[in-house]
Automatic annotation (TrEMBL):
Keywords: Membrane, Signal, Transmembrane, Transmembrane helix. It comes from the Bacteria. The chain crosses the membrane at residues 39-56, 68-87, 99-122, 129-153, 165-183, 204-223, 229-250, 281-301. The keyword Phosphoprotein does not apply. GO terms for cellular component: plasma membrane. The keyword Iron-sulfur does not apply. Residues 1-31 form the signal peptide. This is Sodium bile acid symporter family protein. It comes from Duganella phyllosphaerae. Pfam families: SBF_like.
Amino acid sequence: MSRPKYLPDHFTLAMLVTVAAASLFPCTGQAAVVFDNVTQAAVCLLFFLHGAKLSREAVVAGITHWRLHLLVLLCTFALFPLLGLGLRPLLEPLVTPDLYLGILFLCMLPSTVQSSIAFTAAARGNVPAAICSASASNLLGIFMTPLLVGLLTSAQMQGGSSLESFVQIATQLLLPFIAGQVARRWIGAWVERNKAITRLVDQGSILLVVYTAFSEAVGQGLWHQVSGRSLAGLLLIDVILLGLVMFTAAKLSRKLGFSREDRIAIVFCGSKKSLASGVPMAKVLFAGGTLGAVVLPLMLFHQLQLMVCAVLAQRYASSADPAEPAKP
């Protein structure tokens, strides 16, 4: 039986079910400690598998295209935060202070890897450059995101310094990734053959973090603080941010003389935000009472970027020269 097109994808439905479960049956006490330990282990395993999966040859193939990578990184770590700060007078009346904090945090996150590459390939763009840009964004995000959060939102952090937060994030994300790269020579082929396992760990770790985050936030009265008006305002803000960054990336890349394939990679890599990296980082950086509200803008943005990019990739592909082969 085919899936109705009007339904969200399985992962989005799973996130909605997870939020509902955390709202109705939040984990507390010793159960919360167990869930937290399992979640940390799942996140470490996720980044270990990402390290084992990422081909160094693919990165080298695109790394010389430095102008493209620089523009993507500027969109990710400069344009997004500037928009989050510059639009503050417009944003604050629409959402609660904790939700605005989540919007700022969203603006400081790295780009996605898998979906950026997938959409670039579907749109017949420069796939090797997209692999390099998205991977570089994720690795730099381990350093850049805690630094930006420490500079712009230090009052709302958990109490540790940005250096302490970086050490925790590096321990949980960077070290497993490096271990995966080291182990790639032995397990890389197996990981490539068993992509379903990576996808299961990827989605499962996010769902675990979402459940523990919302369980703690529900205990702090999250749904008494977030109204329907705030949720509607949050969705509008996500639409505005995504639209502005995509428009700016497209215009700048055209003005700077990039090829069509490069422009596609820039738009998709420069406008995306990583849920897989963002949710574990939020758990390290922010106190439990604000954690649920902080990750809520990212969860909405994640689904929005997938839907918009899917439509945009189809438009790019349909406008490409039929005689021109897609880049590998």
